[in-house]
Design goal:
The protein has 792 residues and is of the alpha+beta class. Helix content is 66%, strand content 7%. Among the domains are: 1-38 and 195-340, Up-down Bundle (Multidrug efflux transporter AcrB transmembrane fold); 69-125 and 135-177 and 467-517; 369-396 and 615-792, Multidrug efflux transporter AcrB transmembrane fold (Up-down Bundle), CATH 1.20.1640.
């Protein structure tokens, strides 16, 4: 392993053309394979977690699963609603929707309590998650009805339309983040290298690595389903680590070139760079991969998808640094050698001295390093206190599973959703009580569920039953006798028992005449029973948004009080609760239960990776502590900024009063991996100086001096990439981008320039225990020997 990067670089340098062609052929092959196989998207079943997951599995077994539903609102453009005109529009909507193959059923319309809105509910055919793909024809028909009735506002919302809007917005946001991060990254690289060609190489390899990883992720989805977030993370992490790894390698090659002064060939210079920076890249990549792999322990399809995307793009980025990058550098180096005499002559004519191979720390880095160099104990204490102070707000961390109520109102379907819930507050969320029993108990279970429904209606936290005069009668008058009869038929015992049974799904005539009973009494509890009588579902509307304290309290009261007092008393009956609120609460609980396991393995893997890389137990412990400091401080700032409201206007977000439940666990894992990048690179330079015979103190200062500029440049790239996500609409993505950007900035400046050098200066040789002090290594002038000497 120690000599593998140098050997790979040697082959690539000697066969540059084949290495470059082979790399791009590999990228194309990955994309072709991915496109050919397609993406295996996660199904609804893959997202089931906890009690809510068990409830949905039971309901699905009985054919009572939740179907994707769209709500079409008809209201006056101005003034009071003309029910005759609204009824005509409702009939138009119904006829158009029933003619679509994507539609399973259309319900009779319902009038809001204030009489200002007429609502038509449409159930789409197919699983819940496929709704966003099938909703486009419905939106087109709704727009067409609106155009045909200019005096009315006809608009559509629902989970499928909202999901499509979120996906469209996410795509636009990602394009925006690329437009921000790519130019800033290029400018940063131009400042570092002063060459368009050298600045373009990191971007070229990062983008090609991203392309290959996307193709591989599509292939991998057939082993582990894709939750729809893997590509986003590949873009985020791929650009950051791809540029960083190439930057480390390029800077080292330029140092070796300047130090050699023309005495070594491009092939030898690449091999020397590979033996040092290449090895650090391999270790860093392995650290990120191992750290990220701990996400699989969360046994969650979203985290598994995130882990797979990160692992693939990091592995491909490491591979590009070890294979095609040396070949590109040889090609560029040969060109530079041909132009070197001409450039040297120009510099001589201008009176400029020859470039030195010694890295320049610069005034800024020198000022940042001065406290650690002159007063390490004081610097260590103050730096740690600052980081701990930033961590304090994290103690008040509150988690929430963000639902559709938290999405950006820039999405048209969300604005319609707000108007929908204002007119029909019972459509905010619905608790679903699912039971499984023997067929002989079906009647007894139904009576118990109906009793549970009456108890819930008497509870102020649940939606009250609406009066018939406020909804159904007006809607029937508007639609006419034939449609009213359809609504009555929909409320027949047979329909209420199994409204989504096989006969309604397969018989076109049944589907044409069917309606959804929920639309005729939206706030009333409803019981559905499977055809075999074994499984029943009670739907309980709640007039509060899913993230609200009232909705959460209603779930607790349902599970702890109402169910035990009713259906919970029946022996042999299994009961579980699902719904939007239950899904979110159970998901947060599931993650909280997995957090100790994931964090424990993460700490252990970080320690073992550092010990393996540097043969030092002390450095392993230091790495764990420093990573905890940077992760804790960034989480503290995340809570401080996003859990309150003071920064809403500054960062353009609406505070959830909590942090998205997936953010902390994911960020801690990713931050540990990314922090290892800088840890490995900085300590590798210190180790190299130590192996070349420098005393411990001088080795620390020399290693920090040599790595300060490149680490900071790499950090600027990462901060830019991650910071661009703060401009996105989705609050969860804002939180991720902010926390990652802050963590990288703190890690590169405070941890690597203040805390780490202070600790190492205070410990001296003890920092490398139990490794012995190495013998002095002399750099050889021959290419292969030089590479071996650099490895040590």
């Amino acid at each position: 392993m120690r000599h593998l990067p140098a050997r790979m670089a040697r082959w690539s340098a000697r066969h540059a053309g084949r290495a470059i062609a082979g790399w791009f052929a590999f990228v194309v092959l990955c994309l072709v394979a991915g496109i050919s196989l397609g993406t295996n998207e996660a199904t609804t079943e893959d997202f089931w977690v906890g009690e809510a997951g068990r409830a949905e599995a039971t309901a699905t077994e009985g054919g009572l699963e939740r179907s994707p539903t769209e709500r079409i609102m008809i209201r006056a453009r101005s003034g009071e609603l003309d029910m005759a005109a609204a009824g005509a529009a409702a009939r138009d909507v119904t006829e158009r929707m029933r003619g679509l193959p994507e539609v399973e059923s259309v319900a009779a319309p319902v009038r809001s309590k204030d009489g200002e809105v007429l609502l038509v509910s449409v159930v789409l055919d197919g699983p819940e998650l496929e709704g966003k793909e099938n909703v486009v024809p419905l939106l087109e028909q709704t727009a067409a009805v609106g155009a045909d009735h200019p005096d009315l506002v006809v608009e559509e919302t629902g989970s499928p339309a909202i999901s499509k809007g979120v996906n469209d917005q996410r795509d636009e946001d990602l394009a925006l983040s690329e437009r921000i991060s790519l130019p800033v990254t290029l400018i940063t690289l131009l400042i570092v290298f002063g060459s368009v060609i050298m600045a373009g190489v990191p971007l070229l390899l990062a983008l090609s690595s991203i392309a290959a990883a996307i193709g591989l992720s599509m292939v991998a989805s057939h082993v582990m389903p894709d939750a729809g977030v893997g590509t986003n993370l590949i873009l985020l992490i791929g650009l950051a680590v791809g540029v960083d790894y190439t930057l480390f390698y390029l800077k080292r090659e330029r140092e070796e070139r300047a130090r050699a002064g023309g005495r070594l060939s491009p092939e030898a210079l690449v091999e020397l760079a590979a033996a040092t920076a290449g090895r650090a890249i391999v270790i860093s990549g392995l650290a990120v991969i191992v750290s990220t792999a701990t996400l699989y322990l969360a046994t969650d399809v979203i985290f598994s998808s995130l882990a797979t995307g990160t692992i693939l793009v990091v592995a491909v980025a490491v591979a590009s640094s070890l294979t095609v990058l040396p070949a590109l550098l040889v090609v560029i180096g040969r060109r530079a050698d041909r132009l070197a005499p001409r450039r040297a002559a120009r510099r001589a004519r201008r009176g400029k001295p020859a470039r030195s191979g010694k890295p320049e720390t610069g005034r800024v880095f020198g000022a940042l390093l001065r406290p650690a160099r002159t007063r390490p104990a004081l610097t260590l204490c103050l730096s740690v206190l600052v980081m701990l102070g930033l961590t304090v707000p994290a103690l008040g961390l509150k988690l929430i599973d963000p639902g559709k109520d938290t999405f950006s109102r820039d999405i048209p379907a969300m604005r319609v959703y707000d108007r929908l819930t204002a007119s029909f507050p019972e459509l905010f969320v619905t608790h679903e009580v699912v039971t499984r029993s023997t067929p002989e108990q079906a009647a007894q279970v139904r009576r118990a569920l109906e009793d549970l429904g009456r108890r819930a209606q008497a509870d102020p936290l649940f939606a009250r039953a609406s009066k018939k005069a406020e909804s159904g009668e007006s809607a029937e008058d508007a639609m006419g006798a034939e449609d009213a009869k359809s609504a009555q038929d929909a409320q027949s015992p047979e329909s209420r028992t199994n409204p989504q049974g096989p006969e309604n799904r397969t018989n076109p005539q049944n589907r044409e005449n069917s309606t959804d009973p929920r639309t005729t009494a939206l706030s009333e509890p409803r019981v559905r029973t499977s055809a075999d009588g074994r499984i029943s579902v009670l739907e309980l509307p709640v007039s509060h948004p899913a993230p609200s304290a009232e909705a959460i309290e209603s779930l607790s009261r349902l599970r702890q009080d109402h169910i035990p007092a009713t259906v919970g008393r029946l022996s042999g009956v299994e009961t579980a609760v699902s719904g939007d609120v239950a899904r979110g609460r159970d998901y947060v609980s599931h993650e909280s239960d997995k957090l100790p396991l994931v964090l424990g393995f993460l700490l252990l893997m970080t320690f073992l990776m550092t010990v393996w890389a540097f043969r030092s137990v002390v450095l392993g412990a230091i790495g764990v502590v420093l990573n905890l400091l940077s992760a804790g401080a960034s989480l503290g700032l995340l809570v401080l900024v996003f859990q309150g409201t003071w920064a809403e206007g500054l960062l353009a977000f609406d505070s959830l009063g909590a942090i998205a439940s997936r953010v902390p666990l994911f960020l801690v894992v990713i931050l540990f991996g990314l922090s290892m990048d800088y840890q490995v690179f900085v300590v590798s330079r210190i180790q190299e100086a130590r192996q070349n015979g420098m005393p411990a103190r001088e080795a620390v200062l020399e290693g920090i001096n040599q790595s300060a500029k490149v680490v900071t440049s790499a950090a600027i790239v990462m901060v830019t990439v991650f910071g661009a996500f703060v401009a996105l609409h989705l609050t969860e993505m804002k939180q991720m981008g902010f926390c990652l950007a802050v963590a990288v900035l703190l890690d590169a400046v405070v941890i690597r320039l203040m805390v780490l050098p202070s600790v190492l200066l205070l410990l001296g040789e003890r920092a490398w225990w139990p490794a012995r002090r190495p013998r002095r290594t002399v750099r050889a002038q021959e290419p292969a020997a030089g590479a071996s000497a650099a490895v040590g």
